[in-house]
Amino acid sequence: MGIRYVIPYTLYLTPYTLHPTLYTLHLTPSAYSTSILITVISLQTMHQKLRVRFAPSPTGGLHLGGVRTVLFNYLFAKKNGGDFVVRIEDTDQTRFVKGAEEYIFKTLSWCGLEPDESPIHGGPYAPYRQSERKSIYREYAEQLVKADKAYYAFELPEELETMRDMYKTPENPSPQYDHRIRMNMRNSLSMTLEETERLLEDKVPHVIRIKMPESETVTLHDMIRGDVNFNTGTIDDKVLLKADGMPTYHLAVVVDDYLMKISHAFRGEEWLPSVPVHILLWRYLFGEDNMPQWAHLPLILKPDGNGKLSKRDGDRLGFPVFAMDWTDPKTGETTSGFREKGFLPEAFINMLAMMGWNDGSGQEIFSKDELIEKFSIERVHKAGAKFDYEKAKWFNHEWIKAEEITRYQEEVKNIFRKRGIEINDTNKLSKVMQSVKDRCTLLPDFYDQGKFFFESPGQWDLDAVKPKWNADKAAFFVEFSEKLKLLSEWSAPSIEGSFKELAAAKNIKAGELQLPLRIMLVGEKKGPPVFEIAAILGLDETVQRISLLLEKI
RNA sequence: GCCGCGUUGGUCAAGGGGUUAAGACGCAUCCCUUUCACGGAUGAAUCACGGGUUCGAUUCCCGUACGCGGUACCA
Asked: Which nucleotide does the CA of A527 lie closest to, via C1'?
């Protein structure tokens, strides 16, 4: 009994974890044989380290979905004491974008998701750029040809176009290069051996395509989706090696995942349809038993309508989609990022983690360490999630409130500087930030909320004061200014005490005087408690602002 | 068209044969505060539809619809 339940579990997890005790908890006391089985598996595979990889292609900025994929890889690796490797999949040289790779690594740093191995971090499986590994792929492709699992194909791209036009029907709008038509094409399957060899010797451009079985069921055991079945007959003979000698993604992932000893492979759901190609490649080349455990992550969808979130949506709806600002080197066009918008990386990854994952407890605010501790791939959702910018901002607000201000004080200082206010008094900045942080959702809000502490308000909301203004009140403030100068201790409570005392003596409601004071100090109806503001402003500035408004009203 | 995945409030979602179907964001109202926030309270879902299975389905099975992804010498 126990065995039936525990075996699938061990297949998933035990080989890669060093905590066998976790699993013995699931055993019934009578399941002694099962316990032995687990021990055996653990011992056999304990030396295998869990390894995951993120494999971006350097074609532009990293968007939400990409960072989320990184995050889940990273969390899973760190939780299980594994390695997180970043491999650059730059096999399409026509799409190479200068600066994109550097941008990717900067983004990971900002997010605090530092790789253990990568082209810039180094590692035992270097090189980590596929363009630099070009020479190793061909032999695997050739090996497949020899085993009759792949073949040479000599069509030029234009000829493929012609083929598609030729076979196109209303029922089949996009004909594939597959088992049904491959014998009608120019390839080593349809031609004689001599013909093929001659073409090869003449260096006629060619690709190598996988020979998909006519009808075979391939099953993927996805960690998120469970078993997914495919019929190989519905899939085309994908190109494995391109005419320029570079592998396509299909060949490259499989070869590199094997060579780099990747144990778990997570990627976006858009890859699901090509899974059978990858499984077959594993079976033919390295054995399906050695294949990593797969998990296909749900997509991040655009907030309105449906479909995958794209950077266009951000431009259209007014929110960032990339992690950091990205300037396209060709067009010079800049796409805004979460960092520059004023997001804290803690909030950014927290928000991303909650898109598709939760721990079931209802908790939503997680630090990176907590995420590492609690993350599990089995609790990742199957369905895509629409991105909600309002919720994203809420996360940032929560993090601003929760974090020590020193954590982001430099950023805030820079924001002030960029807008023309140089702050030298760090102590004052700390006080200001402390008192306005509850009102700040994005980092630049500190400027809007705290500007008046550093320069006199340029204009005053006189309309808020005038209707109830009179000579008694004016006299009150004149006297109040004098009283302030005699205060032995300059603090919010003592200022407030003095204020209320005088109001009582003059028989004016203190409440009616507070709004005018606020307008004097702030200029408008906003900000922290007035006496706190006065305390931070200091005696001279407070008195000065009072008299300035007294003249204007 | 074909293949695959998905479908719980506007959004993120928990739950998973018997529940008043959690919680969060946003929204609305109220309380607190003679500012703006924070905080607190309250309100809003026939669990896509149709068939089964069952004493009982939001939960299991099968269809349908809808959405998405793929269908490239792109990843």
From this structure: B36
The CATH code of the domain at A49-126+298-403 is 3.40.50.620
Q: Which residues of A187-216 are buried (b: 16+ CB within 10 A; e: fewer)?
A: bbbbbeeeebeebeeeeeebbbbbbbbeee
Distance from CA(A301) to C1'(B20), angstroms, rounded? 33
Average pLDDT, chain A: 90
The highest-level CATH class for domain A462-552 is: mainly alpha
**Does the annotation mark A311 as catalytic?**
yes
pLDDT at position A466, please?
Answer: 86
Per-residue pLDDT of A181-232, as tens digits, reads 999 999 999 999 999 999 999 999 999 999 999 999 999 999 999 999 999 9
Reported ipTM: the value is 0.95
Question: What's domain A129-262's architecture?
Answer: Alpha-Beta Complex (3.90)
Catalytic residue among A311, A341, A368, A437: A311
Bases along strand B below 7 A from a protein CB: 1-8, 10-15, 22-26, 34-38, 67-75
Domain boundaries, chain A: 2-45, 49-126+298-403, 129-262, 462-552
Q: Is the dihedral of CA A41, A44, A48, A49 positive or negative?
A: positive
What average pLDDT does this structure show over A515-530? 94
